Amino acid sequence: MRAGPAALPPCKRLSLRPWEEVHGLSVRHHGSTDAAPDLLMKIAILGPGGVGGLLTGALERAGSLVVLVARESTAEVVAARGLQINSVVLGDFVAHPRVVSRLDEPVSALLVATKAAGLASSLQRVDTQPELVVPLLNGLDHLGVLRERFGPGVVAAGTIRVESDRPEPGVVAQTSPFLYVEMASANAALQATLQTLAKILTDAGVPAGVGNSEAEVMWSKLVRINALACVTSAYDKLLGEIQSTPALYADFEGAITEACAVSKAEGAEIDPAQTLAEYGYAHATLGSSMQRDIAAGRPPELDAIPGAVLRAAARHNIACPTIEKLMRMIGERAGVPVNLPATG
């Protein structure tokens, strides 16, 4: 029998305290006046979607100092009705975070939770220099964009593993039990801040940790999400049917194997057998955000997810025929152009 994936830290439920009450106190630990002084952290979250909204709701409910940054129309909805969280991990509740359409105040950390295609326009809403920036986007290329904007010593690598969607403004639906934030930085000066942020997230019910290397953190997720996104979106099937259909599962396995070869060349050892074993324990109705984007008529993140793998493959002259095939199929289904970098 194959071993299952390592268990994630258990989620905690904390007492609820309104942001205004917390903000009015001399806060030392995200809403608690009796914790260590070094845990003071004001967190801004850029992007009110499935990821950003879920994290905002969890942090606000835990009494953290959190502010959500959203476009004007969404900010008005959240300010008026609150943020409805429907989560299989955190439960169902309405959070009332502070929400702004432009961030112009000092913050300890900025969590970037936009789509890759919307990153540039979303950054125009930020008029401050955070002490730490943690992006939670899919793909790889956003790291360079953010480091050019905020400085290389401020931006860490970050990923989140979650199935969460925003069916309408102000509403978040997390439908699968997996939830984990992982961060890493080559900058030793950021280590203590990353550990503090990980503790705050974990205390709010969002398990989080700090990894050993940026490459491992980024590629560990990219290998997994690339396979799931590509196969679910190319065939418009959920994981259970993919696993039970030999031809589809061959593509799923091929996408993982090819991406693992690229990740190794990029300095991250990801075991394809372990990755496949982890998906063996996922629920049969697991889909992908790319699949949901296509169904909703939104452009899929082809450039950010398989495009990132293929560009890295081209740097190392590694052929990825399965990923290329799936990318073409997705482009045809979604009616969008596909640009494939030349590989070996």
Largest sheet: 5 strands, parallel
> What is the typical, i.e. mean, pLDDT?
89
Largest sheet, order of strands side by side?
A: 5-2-1-6-7
> Roughly what fraction of the amino acids lie in strands?
15-25%
The radius of gyration is 20 Å
- In CATH, the architecture of the largest domain is 3-Layer(aba) Sandwich
- Shape, principal axes of CA atoms: globular
The CATH topology of the largest domain is given as: Rossmann fold
Low-confidence stretches: 1-38
Q: What is the CATH domain class of the largest domain?
A: Alpha Beta
Distance between the ends? 36 Å
Q: Structural class of the secondary elements?
A: alpha/beta
Number of strands: 10
CATH superfamily of the largest domain: NAD(P)-binding Rossmann-like Domain
Domain count: 2
- Please give the oligomerization state of what you see: single chain
Notable traits:
N-(1-d-carboxylethyl)-l-norvaline Dehydrogenase, domain 2; 344 residues; five-stranded parallel β-sheet; single chain; 2 domains; Rossmann fold; five-stranded mixed β-sheet; alpha/beta
Question: What do you see in this structure?
Answer:
41% of the residues lie in helices and 17% in strands. With 344 residues, it is α/β, with parallel strands linked by helices. The chain has 2 domains: 19-211, NAD(P)-binding Rossmann-like Domain (Rossmann fold); 216-334, Orthogonal Bundle (N-(1-d-carboxylethyl)-l-norvaline Dehydrogenase, domain 2), CATH 1.10.1040.10. The strands form 2 sheets. The protein has a 5-stranded parallel sheet with strand order 5-2-1-6-7, with helices on both faces. Strands 3, 4, 8, 9 and 10 form a 5-stranded mixed sheet that branches. The longest helix is centred in the middle third of the chain and has 22 residues, at 214-235.
